[in-house]
Amino acid sequence: MAIHEPPDDRSQPGGYAEEPFFFESAVHRLFGVLHSPHRAGQPLPIPPRGVVLCSPLAEEKGIAHRPLVLFARFLASHGFHVFRFDYRGTGDSQGDFEETTLSACLTDTARAVQVLRERAGVERPMLLGLRLGGTVAALAAGADPSLGPVVLWEPVTDPRSYYDQFFRMAVVAEQLRTGGAGRTREDLARDLADGRAVDVLGFILGAQAYREFSGVELIPERLGAGPTLVLGLGRSPKPRPELEALAEAHRRRGGAAEVIQVPERPFWGDPNNAVREIASWWGHEGLFGRTLAWFEAAV
Amino acid sequence: MPGGTERAVRFRIGADQLIGILHEPTAESARGTGVVFATGGIRTRIGPYGQYLRYARELCRQGFHCLRVDAPGVGDSEGEFHDLLEYWQGTVENCELSNRLVDFLVEQTGVQRIGVLGLCGGAVNAFIAGGESPRVSFAVVISLPVEMPGGAFPEGASVYQEFAGRHSIAGRLEEAFPRYRLPDRRALFLFGDQDPFYSGFMGRYSGLFEDSGGVASPFTLSVVPGADRVFAGQAWQEAACRAFTEWLLDQEDRGVHE
Fold this sequence. Notes:
The complex is a heterodimer. By secondary structure, chain A is α/β, with parallel strands linked by helices. Chain A has nine helices and eleven strands. In chain A, 40% of the residues lie in helices and 21% in strands. In chain A, helix 2 crosses helix 3. Chain A is globular and about 65 Å long. The relative contact order of chain A is 0.13. By secondary structure, chain B is α/β, with parallel strands linked by helices. The longest helix of chain B has 21 residues. Chain B is globular. The two termini of chain B are 31 Å apart.
């Protein structure tokens, strides 16, 4: 296992260790990386604290990957175990993207939580989810009251609109490529309604995956009752009303929920330029720091 | 896992731990040939639209060992870089990583023949590594970015022009071509026919595929109809995979590398 030694100054963040491995979830082998805090000669928090990261899906996952890795290292260097994993059909995990339904993501997240418990001794894992991963994290917390606090980075509160956006992009791309002879949004919708998978910007979206995700409602009954931070990211001075509504839904569920806006550049959308994409990996000290502070206070 | 196994591997370059996946075929199907996937630029070991993963799994089913690793500073690997443009171009041309991955694959699996596969920037890396590295016998070169004489990019690919400080890679490619005239070195060039670099490539290098002096060309061309530059559609990826798998199996059957 690679170990990064911390600096001598104990007031500075410590080091971390990283271990990649495959683990089983139902009938699939999933890939994950466990980041563990490491401080030679210094005590680590007892009991161990840990976070499972729920990643976004499709192209957003690929674009946001490096910032999430950097965040995991940041959190680990501050004493948290962090487990990143790929849902079935994504990343290096087994399966096809058609199988990456909401129920599959929830099953795989529950398994990842179990892995964090087993491997790191974390008794009350916390969750952090980005975009659709935030949607998954919110619902996972609702299904498992033993989980700890949850942070949602720009969660997708209306998955149907979210998918519509990608359908529009796919249709435009295809119309441009075919000179107007490509599929329409109605074609995509009809295929999905008839149970057929569709290719959306290089990702094969299964009919069941679309049905499950687009039909989800983040209503109080489905959410967790533990402390929740809903975080908006972008130049707007205030969080989107949808994020405020989500936080309110958590409060109606009986949990303490806070919503904040961090004025940093989003890092999951296609910047259409490699240099801008690399630049989007950095400059998230505010996001990382606010999230760390919230986790430390919430534990 | 059907068609072989996959295991997470760690590989160190200097102080940086690199993380990757090693695909190992079953003992019965193993051919003793390995493929290293070159990423180039900022793409991870998954490849654009997950295609590296699909390609590696299919090749593994066909008996090839495959290694996909995130380059330093990218994906799950450690390392950082601060000069964006130097990194962008440096990883494409610098075959040190590919060479180290080749060594690692041989150490881990004992394969006797090695090839490098890459797309776009990874294609440049694969082609150069295929020509320069003594342990590499073949290259699968997908969507090779090609400059026109004078250093410009073909029409439709001008976005690549905007990187200030970019220097021409044509020289490195030109140096690599004659190295494939050595025995037992082969390269497959694969393009989507909607890729602007395809027409640029054919305009500049179509003569490569002609036999010379009674000697068969070491280069093969395969074109996927309708495919764009990055094979953003799964059907195109499947067609590309069929094409290079057939080519690789043909090389194996003909014992080209014996």
